[in-house]
Amino acid sequence: MSKTKEPVMEEIKHLSDKNEFFRYFEEQKLALDLQERKAQWFDPVPRQFLAKDKAATTILFGGLTMAHDYLAEGALKGLGYNVKRLECPDTGSLRFGKEFGNRGQCNPTYFTVGNLIKYLHHLRDTEGKSKEEIVQNYLFVTSGSCGPCRFGTYVTEYRKALRDAGFDGFRVLLFQQQSGVKQATGDKSALKLDTSFFLGFLKAILLGDILNALGYRIRLYEVEHGSTDAALASCKKYLYNALYKRKWLIPALIKCRKELQSVKVDRTRVKPKVSIIGEFWAMTTEGDGNYQLQRFLEQEGAEVDVQSLTAWILFLIWEGRYDTPWIKLRKEDSGPKGLKGKKPALRLKMLAIADRAIRVMFQTYARVIGLHDYHLPDMDEIAKEAHSHYNNHLRGGEGHMEVGKLILNVKKRKVNMTISVKPFGCMPSSGVSDGVQSLITEKYPNAIFLPIETTGDGAINVYSRIQMMLFKARQAAQKEFDEALAEKKNVTSGASKLIRAY
299 CB contacts (<8 Å, ≥6 apart)? Predict the structure, then answer.
């Protein structure tokens, strides 16, 4: 062997496979030094939330409706946590998000990330807390998912913006829908994800949905302006105290019913009913993130039908049932998420019990407080209606639910108009609303459907488009009202004739 080949053989004799050989020779061609190869970038995880820090640490959270965030605060405080809900994101939050966030992010990211930074600036600049004190004594909890866009990179976006805003090291803990709280659990963790934690949080979700449904049902028909909001404010306090003190909820719900029954309404007013669907945050938030869509519709004389968070929980349960096979495979997968050693029948049974328990809890609370004829969605029915247009295995965003909701809204005449709201460029929702839904509206020409995108500005354009479609919805509502009156008149006339005959 020649002398020039000996050093090369010495360098490559430790390489174990052909991929490493290939990489070595390609790096030699490009004159890359193996010794100076840089390490892969990784996102460092700030320190955990330990039990010893529980008393001195305040947990910040937010992102749901104002009712949900308020009640969740009461439930978590009742478990001994120091918690603080953030206010609903506004245009000020958007400015902070765009200043410190990456370029080209979606609307919810700017608003929610900016909302946190805005509050931390308030702690530092208004309350006089130091950066070190804020980083040590505060943390933020946000939701995550398996989604391809904002949920998939949410925590990293938070940390990047926090670092650039001067709060490097601030803890952001990710609540993963399928896997619990990441980066926060363990034997020494202050977050105890036990039955009390999940039950308290679930109650806050159910009660928030019920209060929102009642508010939108009553407010548009109130005789005295502002009486509905005043009654709801009292109800929130009753339920907050019950959750905080971990008391039985039924007495608080009865008080709420009396408050709401005191609101005088006029149900003879003809109002179109409008359903809001779309991307989760965009259709849930009640602030500038969706141009205060719910309140704008009410100002235009429309009754708003909002999606419940309980429905999303039921969708997650449905996912578990749909993905669990009934039959035994010839060879079970032994991977980390495989089926080897699992019991599909037991899993399906537990998921069915969970679905039933949530529905029973919801309807019990709803009946006591006075919410009648409100039905949680049948997830199997939604999946069946949507499957021929949108595969049930696709899970980005709301998955097939947007398609199924629109079809059922039309077939069952649930509403007069459906609005799909989503962030600008949101792939899962835009692909559905601007693509698949166009076919649905061709098959169901009676559907009054409007897809809108949010960017943080352009409210006038959105309002104009909604007003044009509301004209059709008002006509449809009036037609339904006239048909109902005619039907009632015919029934009354027939009954009168029978009475006279006797």
Answer: none
* Same domain for 282 and 407: yes
Is 259 domain-assigned? Answer: no
Do 79 and 123 fall within a single domain? yes
Closest of 375, 370, 90 to residue 215, by C-alpha: 370
Instruction: State the average pLDDT over residues 441-451.
Output: 93
- The rounded distance, in Å, linking the Cα atoms of 7 and 172 is 50
CA-closest candidate to residue 46, choices 178, 156, 186: 156
CA distances from 352 to 242, 321, 376 (A): 29, 8, 15
CATH number at 188 reads: 3.40.50
Alpha-helical runs (H) found in 101-226:
107-121, 131-137, 150-164, 195-218
SS3 state of residue 451: strand
How far apart CA 293 and CA 466 sit, in angstroms, is 10
Q: Are residues 282 and 402 in the same domain?
A: yes
Where among 146, 171, 193 does a domain terminate?
193
Distance, CA of 379 to CA of 381 (rounded, Å) = 5
Task: Encode 242-254: b = buried (16+ Cβ within 10 Å), e = exposed.
Answer: bbbeeeebeebbe
Same domain, 59 and 16: no
Question: Tokens 């696709």 appear where?
Answer: 394
Return the residue matching tokens 């097939």. 400
| Rounded Cα distance, 203 and 102, in Å | 36
Residue 234, domain member (yes or no):
no
Judge whether 216 lies within some domain: no
Domain stop point among 147, 172, 193: 193
175: phi > 0 → left, psi -120 to 50 → alpha, else beta; which? beta
142 and 29 in one domain? Answer: no
Domain that holds residue 149: 51-193
Q: Is 277 exposed, middle or buried (0-12, 13-18, 19+ CB in 10 A)?
A: buried
DSSP 46: P
- Cα(442)–Cα(377) distance, integer angstroms: 24
> What is the per-residue pLDDT across 87-102, written as a single tens digit (0 to 9) for each?
999 999 999 999 998 8
Q: Are residues 299 and 391 in the same domain?
A: yes
Task: Give the total number of structural domains in the chain.
Answer: 3
* Euclidean distance between CA atoms 444 and 205, whole angstroms: 34
Residue-wise pLDDT tens digits, 204-243: 999 999 999 999 999 999 999 999 999 999 999 999 999 9
> Widest CA span of the chain, in angstroms?
122
**Predicted model pTM:** 0.85
Q: Is residue 218 part of a domain?
A: no
Judge if 18 and 106 occupy the same domain.
no
Model confidence at 14: pLDDT above 90: no
Instruction: Tell me: do 79 and 162 sit in the same domain.
Output: yes
Type and span of the H or E element at 143: strand 138-144
Under a CB-based contact definition with an 8 Å cutoff, are residues 270 and 478 in contact?
Answer: yes
